[in-house]
Amino acid sequence: xxxxxxxxxxxxxxxxxxxxxxxxxxxxxxxxxxxxxxxxxxxxxxxxxxxxxxxxxxxxxxxxxxxxxxxxxxxxxxxxxxxxxxxxxxxxxxxxxxxxxxxxxxxxxxxxxxxxxxxxxxxxxxxxxxxxxxxxxxxxxxxxxxxxxxxxxxxxxxxxxxxxxxxxxxxxxxxxxxxxxxxxxxxxxxxxxxxxxxxxxxxxxxxxxxxxxxxxxxxxxxxxxxxxxxxxxxxxxxxxxxxxxxxxxxxxxxxxxxxxxxxxxxxxxxxxxxxxxxxxxxxxxxxxxxxxxxxxxxxx
Length: 300
Ligand SMILES: Nc1ncnc2c1ncn2[C@@H]1O[C@H](COP(=O)(O)OP(=O)(O)O)[C@@H](O)[C@H]1O
Ligand SMILES: O=c1ccn([C@@H]2O[C@H](COP(=O)(O)OP(=O)(O)O)[C@@H](O)[C@H]2O)c(=O)[nH]1
What we know:
Order of helices and strands: HHHEHEHHHEHEHHEH
Largest sheet: 5 strands, parallel
Strand order of the largest sheet: 2-3-1-4-5
Radius of gyration: 29 Å
Low-confidence stretches: 1-44
CATH topology of the largest domain: Rossmann fold
Bound molecules: adenosine-5'-diphosphate, uridine-5'-diphosphate
Helix content: 55-70%
Number of strands: 5
Distance between the termini: 53 Å
Number of helices: 11
Structural class: alpha/beta
């Protein structure tokens, strides 16, 4: 990480040094002083050097080797910037942690707010079905992945690089960040019925969210064979522009799902909250089953 930050800094500084020294040489030596190679013993009429000759004489355009001191200076600037970023990121993470720790009850009362967790492997169709539920049941769709990607793109975000790294590696972003984003989105929306899509993906997230934000009413679980999810994700990857819709990251996401996320489904199963839908059929057929389940749970 440090290397990347300092390398980027070096890269961004290097052209400026070259351009600046080129300009200062241009103004101090040319045209008042004629470069040495244009002074000859035979008197000739002065002709201004061509751009090519001038640049050869001044050394502009040539690859300069940065001195050791310059490299050291750039590296230490890079390191300091990186340490400041880490300190402020850690500070912010700690502040969220403390805020959550200090709560004695969830921020949202489960009798006034309805939270349904929508779980399933990557590419099982969670997002697709959530859109149908928003249309027919007046739910607000909160995709944890979308919220993380938005935070990653937000200019000035302390977590942008960290989120990008976790997503690219198919790992689960530290829970404080995701929980804070979900809670903020719930507050800002002002609705009362939420589909929390793709979260919780790990036991610590499940426990912390229910303790501090809101207890879930139900869990919708999309069961899907890996080969089917793989085909869908590779197809989605052709247009999604997502850094994780590629074969290498997809394999890692499957592993993370089996090791960390499936235990969450089992945890809620023991509590009798899970409704499972097999989703190898067409989106329309899958939705028929989902709709029946929602009609049953939310009949009013
Ligand atoms: N039942 C389905 N049959 C075929 N393709 C589907 C089905 N459901 C979703 N898809 C497609 O598969 C891809 C992954 O679906 P998506 O809803 O984004 O999954 P998830 O949110 O679980 O990652 C998308 O390109 C979507 O259009
Ligand atoms: O609570 C979450 C939800 C998502 N992610 C990250 O976001 C990626 C994409 O998740 P999303 O739900 O958008 O897509 P899916 O994997 O379900 O297709 C995951 O692989 C994780 O790296 C995370 O860290 N925590």
